[in-house]
Amino acid sequence: xxxxxxxxxxxxxxxxxxxxxxxxxxxxxxxxxxxxxxxxxxxxxxxxxxxxxxxxxxxxxxxxxxxxxxxxxxxxxxxxxxxxxxxxxxxxxxxxxxxxxxxxxxxxxxxxxxxxxxxxxxxxxxxxxxxxxxxxxxxxxxxxxxxxxxxxxxxxxxxxxxxxxxxxxxxxxxxxxxxxxxxxxxxxxxxxxxxxxxxxxxxxxxxxxxxxxxxxxxxxxxxxxxxxxxxxxxxxxxxxxxxxxxxxxxxxxxxxxxxxxxxxxxxxxxxxxxxxxxxxxxxxxxxxxxxxxxxxxxxxxxxxxxxxxx
Length: 310
Prior knowledge:
The protein is an alpha/beta fold.
């Protein structure tokens, strides 16, 4: 069987790209100390409208960019591990590439976090952090801090009100946030975060962040929330009880974050406005929620304040 002539140029292009692979890999390994933010081409949609040749070229460029980024992350983590003085330290810290959680991470029916992938603080982590829990005898709840990295994480995403995630902008632009593990099945270079967490950190897919086992978060005593919509109190007969029930899906809270709860098929958003620790009621930037007796309060809703200002 003969090959159609139209396929020959595309086949030649693909073979040419494969021949370039060794030199590209060599360039990747030689630039391991030059930690660069992911290029915009990594998130650029690819279309066949311009023909298969440009499609293959763009796919190849994206694959090379992602391979370089993964190599940089692996090189940094290897150097960190080599610098540690004991096995416990080697597992507590990583730089990882961020991707958003989606419905494919939804635990099976009957699991506690079923249908709460986006309305909780759980993240999918690589297996090394399960080793960190075991080697460091970490106490429950297991918490992990996700942080932006100066000079490494790309500039913050510009956000607008009334987008597809939250109706109003987060009031704070956080540099770090704390959450718990959904599972430990992520690839070694990756962490998967709920959308609200990516939003409050100003992250885009394939940004690089720092993740650390967090062992010193104080137990919580009180949390104040500002609803985005005053409709929350109108829709629900006992909003305080519903809030405290839904808080079970959060292992921790971070001051300034904007979190979500679902009730009767509707999603409600809240700013975390104040946090106090037990037993003295000291104000804190983050607290544990799981296995704590948390008192909650509501502040006036944001949409009510906007109407009053008008």
